[in-house]
Amino acid sequence: MLSSKDVNWLTEELIATIEAMGGEANLKVVGMMVADFRVFPKHQLKEALHRVRMEGTSRLTPKVLLDQLDAINGRLGADEAFALVLKAKDETQTVVWTDEVAQAWAAVYSMVQSKDQVGARMAFKQAYERIAQDARAQLKRPEPAFTLGTDPELRRVAITQAHEQGRLPLELALDALEGVAQFDAQKNTFVALGYTPSPLALPAPSNDGGLSHLVTNKPTVSGILPANVVEHIKKAREAAAKSATRTKRRQQAMKRLERMKFAKRQREIGAAVQQHLNQQQKGTEQ
Questions:
Q1: Are 182 and 190 in contact (CB under 8 A)?
Q2: Could you give the CA distance from residue 212 to residue 209 in angstroms, rounded to a whole number?
């Protein structure tokens, strides 16, 4: 839950993001989004809003922001999760997924194994979205998990790839590859058992102590500038300094004006947030 100070920060970030993407911030909409998303940690909201701006989505909506928060937490989309489930039907394949995917797969296992793939996909998506929604409400992040296939080489490849992509911590990767592969710290990867890594080859030392690649020659400038040129440069610098001072004053005045406008806008949005929370509370009491 965000503090009062961080709620103000989120308000500012939402307004700035909406306007940066060419939209116009509606006070009621911003207030609603602040009330809905204040349960998430600040660092996740900051990263999610940054991704929204960088990806150039047409506009900021609650769904767009929620998708980015899911991605940050390692939560897969329903279609991506179902693709992994289909891959897991092949007993030779090792699949790295999450505990949420595994729970949904277990709930609809019989349908996934049947020939009705359309019905299986719909049932899986419903189960998965329900599980993901419950986890979001509890601010629970999905945990990495895997299902091991019978082919040891395919297992090594899948686990290695998942570990290198940051989807599987080293401890779990070692458990998955026990008896199949070992971790080569020198190469920072997993190699099949029985593989002997080649010794590390170091470059031969050079006679100059390894400094031969450094360039030390620098162009030099000599001579004395004429007096009239020096005076011209001096006047140009003074004029530039005065212009910079005037520009800085104008910028400071504009910033003060913007702060005044934003403070008024922030008070209005704060009232909208409180109104939305009061409505939610009344609905709960009823």
A1: yes
A2: 8
Rounded Cα distance between 65 and 61, Å, is 6
Contact 14, 25 (CB under 8 A): yes
Close Cβ partners of 35 (under 8 Å, ≥ 6 residues apart)? 273, 276, 277, 280
pLDDT at 124: 93
Q: What does the alpha-carbon distance between residue 24 and residue 146 come to, in Å, rounded to a whole number?
A: 45
**Residue 96: which residues within 8 A CB-CB, separation 6 or more?**
144, 145, 146, 158, 159, 162, 167, 168
Widest CA span in the chain: 92
153 token code pair? 């080489």
Task: Check: pTM over 0.70? Answer yes or no.
Answer: no
Q: What is the pLDDT of residue 25?
A: 86
Q: Please tell me which residue, 224 or 159, carries the higher pLDDT value.
A: 159
% of the chain at pLDDT higher than 90? 39
3-state helix/strand/coil string of the chain: CCCHHHHHHHHHHHHHHHHHCCCCCCHHHHHHHHHHHCCCCHHHHHHHHHHHHHHCCCCCCHHHHHHHHHHHCCCCCHHHHHHHHHHHCCCCCCEEEEHHHHHHHHHCHHHHHCCCHHHHHHHHHHHHHHHHHHHHHCCCCCCEEEECCCCHHHHHHHHHHHHHCCCCCHHHHHHHCCCCEEEECCCCEEEECCCCCCCCCCCCCCCCCCCCCCCCCCCCCCCCCCHHHHHHHHHHHHHHHHHHHHHHHHHHHHHHHHHHHHHHHHHHHHHHHHHHHHHHHHHHHC
93 vs 105: CA distance, rounded Å:
16
Q: How many CB atoms lie within 10 A of CB 96?
A: 21
pLDDT at residue 135 is higher than 80: yes
